[in-house]
Amino acid sequence: MEILDGKKISNQIKDEIAAEVAKMKENGEKVPHLAAIIVGNDGASLTYVGSKVRSCKRVGFESTLVQMPSTTSEVELLKKIKELNENSDIDGFIVQLPLPDQIDTQKVIMAIDPDKDVDGFHPTNFGKMALDMSTFIPATPFGILELLERYGVETQGKHTVVIGRSHIVGRPMSILMGRKGFPGNSTVTLTHSRTKNITQITSQADIIISALGVPKFLKAEMVKDDVVIIDVGITRVPDDTKEKGYYITGDVDFEHVSKKASYITPVPGGVGPMTIAMLMKNTLLARERHRSRK
Ligand code: GUN
């Protein structure tokens, strides 16, 4: 069994990006600038956005954090998005999800300029991804592809089972793994909350990508020998014995499933850090596309 070490690979990617940024600086070019909007005080979202801003510093990007209260109206958020769309200093931005109930997430995503949509959530970018056109690939699926590629995990002709159909992970992942090329050329099954007999499906999988958010959902009895496991789940489980009052766990019963797996991602230290590295990569791409800007 080999660990797919997202922490290590994400550091390599960030080093590569930092080298690119250093070259830009030497040439007197403007460095990439990422902005992030966060609405409300959700603990996990604040942690993620904090990591994104820290990573910007680490690779030499400029960053802007826009914090808005949980009572923010849809109109106020749309106004802020318009400002960022029109601010030529900003190459890309994200709106951290989930948003409070009074805000229509689809409307917000539709308002983002597709050229600045470094999350790849806008329908224009999602459509381009599905049609194999050059675009921003959502950071978590992009990070999973990068891990599979850098470890040389064979995907061609394999049966990939994706668990969860979220717009951020499951749905795009199911499209990307079936695309021509490497990683890709898989035969894909997309499973979700209404899937019957999921064990019958997972036990036939060569590769399982789980993005469900149910701690230790995937058990050793549900997988075959030599399976490749990508665990996207990051759930905070309350635990008074921990300093933070919780511990982080994935969708996979790592202790037992890892004994059968050929490759497996740990939680934490697997997919999570890769997501942030690929957001940096998308921001670099956005900057390269906006080169005509000063
Ligand atoms: N919430 C959970 N994952 C993500 C992500 O990749 N991007 C944004 N904007 N919000 C998220």
From TrEMBL:
Pathway: One-carbon metabolism; tetrahydrofolate interconversion
Any one Pfam family match given in the protein's UniProt record, by short name: THF_DHG_CYH
Record-listed NADP(+) binding positions: 164-166, 234
Molecular function terms, GO-annotated: methenyltetrahydrofolate cyclohydrolase activity; methylenetetrahydrofolate dehydrogenase (NADP+) activity
InterPro entries on file: Aminoacid_DH-like_N_sf, NAD(P)-bd_dom_sf, THF_DH/CycHdrlase, THF_DH/CycHdrlase_cat_dom, THF_DH/CycHdrlase_CS, THF_DH/CycHdrlase_NAD-bd_dom
Catalytic activity: (6R)-5,10-methylene-5,6,7,8-tetrahydrofolate + NADP(+) = (6R)-5,10-methenyltetrahydrofolate + NADPH; (6R)-5,10-methenyltetrahydrofolate + H2O = (6R)-10-formyltetrahydrofolate + H(+)
One Gene Ontology cellular component annotation held by this UniProt entry: cytosol
Domain (Tetrahydrofolate dehydrogenase/cyclohydrolase NAD(P)-binding) ranges: 138-290
EC number: 1.5.1.5, 3.5.4.9
Domain Tetrahydrofolate dehydrogenase/cyclohydrolase catalytic: 4-119
Keywords on record: Amino-acid biosynthesis, Histidine biosynthesis, Hydrolase, Methionine biosynthesis, Multifunctional enzyme, NADP, One-carbon metabolism, Oxidoreductase, Purine biosynthesis
GO biological process: L-histidine biosynthetic process; methionine biosynthetic process; purine nucleotide biosynthetic process; tetrahydrofolate interconversion
Entry-linked PANTHER family: C-1-TETRAHYDROFOLATE SYNTHASE, CYTOPLASMIC, C-1-TETRAHYDROFOLATE SYNTHASE, CYTOPLASMIC-RELATED
Protein role: Catalyzes the oxidation of 5,10-methylenetetrahydrofolate to 5,10-methenyltetrahydrofolate and then the hydrolysis of 5,10-methenyltetrahydrofolate to 10-formyltetrahydrofolate.
Family as reported in the entry's similarity comment: Belongs to the tetrahydrofolate dehydrogenase/cyclohydrolase family.
Subunit structure, interactors included: Homodimer.
Entry-linked HAMAP family: THF_DHG_CYH
Name by which UniProt lists this protein: Bifunctional protein FolD
Lineage: Bacteria, Pseudomonadati, Bacteroidota, Flavobacteriia, Flavobacteriales
Chain's gene name: folD
